[in-house]
Amino acid sequence: MIKKPHIITGLDIGSSKISAAALEVVDASCSRILAYESQSSKGVFRGSVMSLDEASNSVAKVLTKLGEKMARGAENIYVNISGDTVTGERSRGMIPLSSRGREVTKSDMAKCVNAAGTIRLPFDREIIHRIVLNYSIDDQPVIKNPLGLYASRLSCEMYMITAGINHIQNIYKCVDNAGYNIKGVVYSGVADGAGLLEEAWENEGVLLLNIGDSLTEISIFSGGVLNAVNIIPLGAADIKGDLKTNTAFDDIISRVKAKCEEFSNKTQTIKLAVIAGGFAFSEGVIDILEERLPYPVKMGVVKNVQGNISSIDSLRGVTAIGLARYAELEHRPKPFQTKGLVKDISEKVTEIFNNYF
Asked: Counting runs of H as helices and runs of E as strands, what totals does the chain give?
């Protein structure tokens, strides 16, 4: 029996346009874009739904057209979120293991992450992403993976992205009224990173700058993960006239520089800037950014594009494609590993022992 491929849909709800990309996941090593659709947006401003009817109608049109192109309905829909309610903050968690020390298990790591994620949030906010930055054991410096090491206590540092509950609920309501269900909500910068960034860039330090119609998103990656986020309520619609003398563009660049300097002061570095969003196509924007920022600037280009999409659409549909690629990891089949009955029982007994003694 041939297993039915997974179809994942990335839905980018923006102020000027709404885009959707359908990604077919065939197996653990193969995926391709089945269809892409984009139309003008109504009822959305600076990342928030302002008119439910208009926004829902815009979403319905895009997803209907997408479904027609691939002869099946859109499914497994992941939607982006951005705007002034989206913020990021760091937190730490620690769990004791044993006074004499023992091996760190996967269960220990999960408990430590849960401890770091247990923070007092205001009642009107919700966590979107829990990103593990590093671990540490006892008094040793930070490490990436403590699994199997001996330790008396385990700590971890996390970066959490949160958003207003009403903001999130309005996105769900918008898509629900269009006749579709949302599988998950993803911060736009996380999606853009999945579509645009090379692994080496993320490890060395990269600024991902998305200047859209009414928002500018600053997302800084280092050590392979997202480390910092800042949303500026200014975009292409606010930038008019000569870029070199434009007050709004100057304001955006000043805020970008301030955020990058704040990040770099924490002993971390940025080696490259990647620009995306509709404003990235403006003449002279990359040259001006390179003059004002202390590192090279590249145009964001979606990596490894395969399937039914033109090169122009792949540039315009960065977030929609990135959403599907981000979600792809959750849908790809896990490789089967045979460990043997004795090893399975041994690991289970060890975990039970650690939990109770």
From this structure: 10, 17
Confidence (pLDDT) at 304? 79
Distant-in-sequence, close-in-space partners of 15: CB < 8 Å, separation ≥ 6: 41, 44, 45, 46, 47, 212, 213, 214, 215, 235, 237
- The pLDDT score that the predictor gives to residue 342 is 52
The amino acid at 330 = E
pLDDT in tens, 96-142: 998 889 999 999 999 999 898 887 788 899 999 999 999 999 988 88
Nearest to 156 by CA among 168, 177, 142, 167: 142
User: 244 near 238, Cβ under 8 Å?
Assistant: no
- Superfamily for domain range 199-301: ATPase, nucleotide binding domain (3.30.420.40)
Fold (CATH) for 87-162: Dna Ligase; domain 1 (3.30.1490)
Per-residue tokens: 103? 């091996």
Q: What's the pTM value of the predicted model, to 2 decimals?
A: 0.88
